[in-house]
Structure formats: C-alpha cells, structure tokens
Amino acid sequence: MPAIRHASKRKPPPEGFSDIEDDLLIFSNQMKDAQNMPTDNIPKHQAQWPIFQISHKRSRYIYELYYEKEAISKQLYDWLLKNNYADAMLIAKWKKQGYEKLCCLRCVQTKETNFNSTCICRVPKAQLKEGQDIQCVSCGCRGCASSD
C-alpha cells in the first residue's frame, strides 16, 4: 500500500515573492536547460560551468535585490535563502571586503588547489603578465578579484 501524503508543511512565501517569481522562474528554466545540455564534446571539468554561472547569477540577483536596491523584505530574503533560491555561503562572502566579485566558493578553498592557494581567477589582472588569458578550472571564471 502506498504511503499517504499529507499536506505540505512548507510555509507559503512571504509578501513580495510574486514580484520576483517570474525572474526566479527564468533562472529555474535556464538551470534545467543547462542540466539537460549534452556534454559529449566538452571536457569533463567544463560540463558544470553553465550550472555554476546560473547559480551565481541567481544568487547575485537576490543579493542585489536585498542589499543594494532594498527591493525585498528581510522575511522574503531569509525565506529565499532557506528554500535554496540563493547560495547563503556565497552571499556571506560577498559581504566581506575583498570578496565582492567572488564567482564561487571553490575558488577560495585552498585545499582544492595544487599549491594550497586560491584560484588563478582571484589574482588581480594588474599582477598578471600582459596578454595572459586566465580561466578558472572550477567554474570558468575569467577573473573575480575585487581590485579589477
């Protein structure tokens, strides 16, 4: 006999969600397209780059709505974070000085690199050799240092 499904205990979204729901739906559709995209002809490490980039855009959108434009309430912002519409850890880094343009958390984790340092995309472009083209292996970023 199948299990009986009870009514969802999930709280309804706070007031103001309907104003941004269309934009969040667009991000959701983009994410589905990125997940269903064929990965036959690209290297394995590049297959997840579109997913990272869409997740970053969605988190940045919510961050800007709350901190820069002040267009959403604290209750809605907390609800969005709790329901995984945005990456709370990435937003916490964006609030710190020097991490305002951070692309993903993998780029600042020193344990994931060969030399126990941050990713190449965190190096300011002024310190790179002229004409040197860099690209992060983790997410495809071409530079997220705050001084750029």
From TrEMBL:
Coiled-coil region(s): none
A single cellular component GO annotation: spliceosomal complex
Cleaved signal peptide residues: none
Subcellular location: Nucleus
The keyword Chloroplast belongs to this UniProt entry's keyword annotation: no
Tagged with keyword rRNA processing: no
Primary localisation category: nucleus
Alphabetical UniProt keywords: Nucleus
Record-linked InterPro entries: BUD31, BUD31/G10-rel_CS
One of the GO biological process terms: mRNA splicing, via spliceosome
Organism superkingdom: Eukaryota
Family the UniProt entry places it in: Belongs to the BUD31 (G10) family.
Protein name from the UniProt record: Component of the SF3b subcomplex of the U2 snRNP
